[in-house]
Amino acid sequence: MDYHIRTPEQLRVALRQLRRALGFNQSEFGSRVGLSQERISAIESHPEKITTDQLLTILMAMGMELVIKPRTTTSSSKENW
Predict the structure, then answer these.
(1) Do 46 and 16 meet the contact criterion of CB atoms below 8 Å apart?
(2) Are the beta carbons of 15 and 43 closer than 8 angstroms?
(3) Does residue 1 sit within a domain?
(4) 2 falls within a domain
(5) pLDDT per residue over 42-71, tens digit each?
(6) Which domain holds residue 27?
(7) Of the candidates 49, 53, 38, 57, which has an alpha carbon nearest to the alpha carbon of residue 11?
(8) Residue 65 sits in a domain of what CATH number?
(9) H helix intervals, 1-81
(10) C-alpha torsion 1→23→57→39, nearest 10
(11) Which long-range contacts (CB under 8 A, 24 or more apart) does 17-22 make?
């Protein structure tokens, strides 16, 4: 499944859904990626404060990857900046 992330709220929802789909609570997932349950909670609550390294580590542990591509919109791409 693809997740189209354009806002921190969308990232928050996606990270939580992916973790739950793997069957992990925050503590179990934190142990898997070397972070505390509190840090996993903070990341899921405020993903705009996550470091790039932590995001990539979490995505890798979830079997996901970060893909950057142009948005598909009906307006000019210059208007999306």
Answers:
(1) no
(2) yes
(3) no
(4) no
(5) 999 999 999 999 999 999 999 999 999 998
(6) 8-80
(7) 49
(8) 1.10.260.40
(9) 8-21, 26-33, 37-45, 52-61
(10) 120
(11) 18/62, 18/64, 19/44, 19/62, 22/62
